Amino acid sequence: MKTLSSLCAVRLLQSADEFRARLAGEFSSVHGISINEFFMLMHLSKAENKQLSRAELAKRMHVSASTVTRMVAPMEKIGLVSREVDERDARIAFVAITEAGNTKREETQVTFEKRAGYFFQDRWSEEDLTQFSALLYRLISGSLSNLS
Questions:
Q1: How many CB atoms lie within 10 A of CB 69?
Q2: pLDDT band with cut points at 50, 70 and 90 for residue 120
Q3: What 3-state class would DSSP assign to 97?
Q4: CA dist., res. 103 & res. 9, Å (int)
Q5: How many alpha carbons fall within 13 Å on the CB side of residue 121?
Q6: Is 22 exposed, middle or buried (0-12, 13-18, 19+ CB in 10 A)?
Q7: Domains in the chain with CATH codes
Q8: Which of 9, 33, 94, 139 supports an S-S bond with 37, CB 3.0-4.6 Å?
């Protein structure tokens, strides 16, 4: 690595990949959704009126609008989200979290929190985690994708 900044960036990305890999199997087998679908439900649950346009979801999730469209279709089929049309402009559609979607998000959140505890428990003190969280927050503060 040429710089400390690039080393930190690589380690941050590797850490995120490691945590994602540990979650993926359990999310799929236990809850029937992917990590990205969980994040979509989180974004929708925090949004005003519990809905967002596909374009806004794409911005917040750092994916393309077509990726959001592909993600929404199966989630809509199983009742986790619904499509809502704008009352003033029928050309604008929103993705809204359903009651079933919110229940699924809450159930999956329990698994997420349990796995996060396992991920950090053997290496980090409470003080370490507080400092780490503050440092990570500085990276995402002001971002649309901030879910904290």
A1: 14
A2: confident
A3: strand
A4: 35
A5: 6
A6: middle
A7: 4-115 (1.10.10.10)
A8: 33
